Each structure stands twice: as structure tokens, then as C-alpha cells.
């Protein structure tokens, strides 16, 4: 019996219509958010590896365990979160820092949580994949597509309370093949919930390429199956993400229901720190796709950014990040005697 192998699907050519770029001051804010996020992750990268040797022991050091960094994906978080307030909810995936930074999660307490310190968002019990900041309705999880159902709960609560808030649910392209993704799109569409679904397509689900795991050319096409709008933003373009998000957020706030935005982005570093990435044939050219210098060049060409402004933005980001790292390092480690505290219900006196 002969078999036929179909060619892998190619990215869809259906893109949101070209829109005028945001005002200059908004573009500078987008750039600053991206720089702050990258500066933060570079500091975490530095501190994570400082005592992992000799060799590489993932369980050693002041930040033990896995670390998933989002360098290269900053345009997605910056463009989406520019339209949100602290009254809106964001549920992020296991690679969460760029969305946490863009949505205004407390940098000091987030860093302390990553370092496993008592002053952290979860008193050092959760680590970097389980960041919860109720002050800005932010959460994330290490479980694939886990953030989608809770986003529906937040959106339902916002609507019942009449707060005007919306929820943004973020996941990677690999998680779009999970049942929770499809169930969430179906229920959100059925109930017309104020949700914006975001898929970050960095082309790799750990070491599996999107073309080997996904039967459609773009996950934005899947939105039609649930009767909701779906758009794909190409080229990791923060201006285009901002425009697509503006439409989707306005639709959600107006009570017109959910939308889906997929962004073609790039994972510049490994799936986790210590990942040699031998499975990536395009690895040598990834640095050329860095969205931050590319956006800086675009802003310079438009007369929006100059040397002094960029230097000021980078200095401000560095000051904020190093302050957070110092705060974390100076914070106490949880008392081992309280290992069960906050896990089980405490007896009431």
C-alpha cells in the first residue's frame, strides 16, 4: 500500500490590514517596555548561571530548577498590554516574564519569588512559572494551556460585576493543540465573554517544530471554527501587534465577545536554560531577528528615537532591574520549619 506525505502547512497570508503606526509617544513606551523586559531577563540569566557550575547542575545555585526566558518575544507582551490596565487580567504561560513586566507586576516581589525568598509574590513557594499578583490580576502556570480556562473565569466575573475589565489569555503555538485551548474558545464564544486569546508562535514546542505538530498553517484560522475573529501578525512586529490588540480589546470591552491573535515571534534562547538547541537548524541566524535593535532602527528612521533617549531608557531599565535583584538577594529565605505553611488550611484558634 502506498502512502502519500502531505507537505507541511505554510504560514497563512491572511494578515490584519495595515494600520498607521501608533503615536510617537506610544511607540517610545512600547520600546521602553521591550527594553525593560529584556534587561530583566538578562539579569535573571546572569544570576541563574552564577553558581550552576562546574558543568551545569540545574538543581544548584541561588535560583535552582528550570528557567524559561522569553527573549525575542517582547513585542507580543508590549503590544498587547499597552491596551490594558491593572483592572484587566492576564494569564500567562510557563514563559511569563515579558507579560509580567509589561502588565506591571511588582518587579521586586516577582524577582524575590524567582529567587525563592519570603518577600516573593508567593512567599518563595512558587518560583518563576507560578507568579501570582492579585494587585494587577496576573497569573501564570507551568501546565500547557492551563491559563485559558481561568481567563474565562476572570472575564465572566468582570462581566457579572460590571467592572469593564477584560481577560487576556496567552499561550504558545504548541498549546493550541490542547483540549483546554479548544474548549475555552468554544465556551468564550458561546457566552460572548470579554476575552482576548493570544498565541505566541515561536515555531518550537520545546524541540518540535510547528510544522510537525499542527495541521493548519496558522492557529488564527482556528478562530473561525468558533465564530470569532482571528488574525495573525507576521514578523514579530510590535506596531502591528499593538494595532491588532487595539481592535480585539475594544471588541471585548464593547461586549462583542472574544477574539484570537496569533503573533509570529521568535525564541532567541533555549526552551530552558541549559538547552543546547541542537535541533534548531536556523540557530545561527536567530540573533539577526532580535526585535529590539530592529525596532530601535525603525524608530530612528522615523525620527522618534535618538541616542540620548535610548540611553535614558536603557539606564532607567537597568536601575529598576538591579534594584529588584538587590531586593531579592537581601530578602530572607523561607524558614524550613514552615514548609507546610500556605499549603494546607491552618487551624483557627
Percent of residues in helices comes to: 25-40%
Strand order in the sheet with the most strands:
2-1-3-4-8-7
Rg over alpha carbons:
20 Å
Spell out the CATH superfamily of the domain at 24-49 and 64-273: Thiamin diphosphate (ThDP)-binding fold, Pyr/PP domains
- Largest beta sheet, briefly? 6 strands, parallel
Q: Would you state the CATH class of the domain at 24-49 and 64-273? A: Alpha Beta
The count of DSSP E runs of length 2 or more, i.e. the number of strands, is 8
Gap from first CA to last CA: 74 Å
Under CATH, the topology of the domain at 24-49 and 64-273 is which? Rossmann fold
- Give the structural class: alpha/beta
The share of residues in extended strands comes to 5-15%
Report mean pLDDT, rounded to a whole number: 93
What order do the SSEs take from the amino end to the carboxyl end, as H and E?
Answer: HHEHHEHEHEEEEHEHH
How many helices does DSSP assign? 9
Low-confidence stretches: 1-13
The CATH level-2 architecture of the domain at 24-49 and 64-273 is identified as 3-Layer(aba) Sandwich
Shape category: globular
Amino acid at each position: 500500500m502506498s502512502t502519500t506525505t502531505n507537505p507541511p502547512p505554510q504560514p497563512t497570508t491572511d494578515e490584519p490590514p495595515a494600520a498607521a503606526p501608533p503615536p510617537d509617544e506610544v511607540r517610545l513606551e512600547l520600546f521602553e517596555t521591550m527594553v525593560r523586559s529584556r534587561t530583566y531577563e538578562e539579569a535573571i540569566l546572569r544570576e541563574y548561571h552564577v553558581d550552576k557550575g562546574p558543568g551545569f547542575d540545574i538543581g544548584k545555585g541561588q535560583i535552582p530548577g528550570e528557567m524559561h526566558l522569553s527573549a525575542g518575544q517582547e513585542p507580543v507582551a508590549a503590544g498587547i498590554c499597552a491596551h490594558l490596565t491593572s483592572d484587566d487580567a492576564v494569564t500567562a504561560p510557563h514563559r511569563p516574564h515579558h507579560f509580567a513586566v509589561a502588565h506591571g507586576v511588582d518587579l521586586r516581589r516577582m524577582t524575590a519569588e524567582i529567587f525563592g525568598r519570603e518577600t516573593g509574590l508567593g512567599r518563595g513557594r512558587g518560583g518563576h512559572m507560578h507568579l501570582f499578583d492579585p494587585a494587577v490580576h496576573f497569573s501564570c502556570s507551568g501546565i500547557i494551556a492551563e491559563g485559558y480556562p481561568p481567563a474565562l473565569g476572570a472575564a465572566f466575573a468582570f462581566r457579572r460585576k460590571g467592572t469593564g475589565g477584560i481577560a487576556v489569555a496567552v499561550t504558545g503555538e504548541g498549546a493550541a493543540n490542547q483540549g483546554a485551548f479548544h474548549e475555552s474558545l468554544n465556551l468564550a464564544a458561546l457566552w460572548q465573554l470579554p476575552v482576548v486569546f493570544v498565541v505566541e508562535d515561536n515555531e518550537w514546542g520545546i524541540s518540535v517544530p510547528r510544522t510537525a505538530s499542527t495541521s493548519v498553517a496558522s492557529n488564527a484560522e482556528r478562530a473561525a471554527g468558533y465564530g470569532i475573529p482571528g488574525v495573525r501578525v507576521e514578523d514579530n512586529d510590535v506596531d502591528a501587534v499593538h494595532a491588532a490588540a487595539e481592535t480585539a480589546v475594544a471588541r471585548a470591552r464593547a461586549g462583542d465577545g472574544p477574539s484570537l491573535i496569533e503573533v509570529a515571534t521568535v525564541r532567541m534562547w533555549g526552551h530552558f536554560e541549559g538547552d543546547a538547541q541542537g535541533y534548531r537548524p536556523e540557530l545561527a541566524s536567530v540573533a539577526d531577528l532580535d526585535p529590539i535593535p530592529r525596532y530601535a532602527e525603525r524608530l530612528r528612521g522615523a525620527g522618534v528615537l535618538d541616542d540620548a533617549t535610548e540611553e535614558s531608557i536603557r539606564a532607567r531599565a537597568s536601575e529598576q532591574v538591579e534594584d529588584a535583584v538587590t531586593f531579592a538577594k537581601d530578602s530572607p529565605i523561607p524558614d524550613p520549619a514552615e514548609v507546610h505553611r500556605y499549603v494546607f488550611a491552618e487551624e483557627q484558634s
